[in-house]
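Triosephosphate isomerase structure dump, as promised
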Amino acid sequence: MTRKLAAGNWKMNGLMASLDELKTLVQSHGDVDTDVLICPPATLLTAARDIAGDKIAIGGQDCHAEAFGAHTGDISAEMIRDAGGTYVILGHSERREDHEETDENVRAKAKAALAAGLTVVICVGESLEEREAANTLDIIGGQLAGSIPDLVTGQTLVVAYEPIWAIGTGKTPTLDEIGEVHDFIRSRLERRFGAGVGRSTPILYGGSVKPGNAAEIFGVSNVDGALVGGASLKAEDFGPIIDALE
Ligand code: PEP
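structure tokens r here:
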């Protein structure tokens, strides 16, 4: 069976005081069956790990493709691991846009992350123009092929489908549209990696997931959880999303 994962991406939000939200979440949802992941800014990784213990996984939001070196301002997968992280988000559309990251860049980062022992959450998603031009599946297929390295397993790979136009906008695709893309991703994973890896890789939906729409989204075929931005910042919002997955 595919494991379920509720992942929170705090993006560039969060100071030390924000970790009170993580404390609350550990108390309320530290013992649920679903896997729970919080990806705070890099400055909070160690402190978050200390609070989360083994109850909630901690991850980075990006990493460099090299393990160390002259790359001012970057952090490596090794550093995330050393700080207690076990996951890293890669290829988020904000990284692809703000830092012009290509599928090739994402794949190189993913290789480094896997070598450091991290599980990679690879993000894919179409723009509104691409959806309106009926190119969604072509775009997703290309991103999957280009961004995911060969050496992955169902334990070390998570795919997040995040339509760019749904991120932080309050808009979501219809349930049928989500199902079409998730079924497509599942079939591409099975075709490339075989049934074992293909069926055990969690496929998350991301884009304006809230307590009010989580349950219906989790009812869609091949949706194994969510990557949540805004609604992961407060335990009172993220908690009910985790509940909807249980
Ligand atoms: C995200 O950035 O990964 C995301 C899904 O954001 P939001 O939930 O705020 O739409």
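The chain has a mean pLDDT of 97.
lmk if u need the other ones
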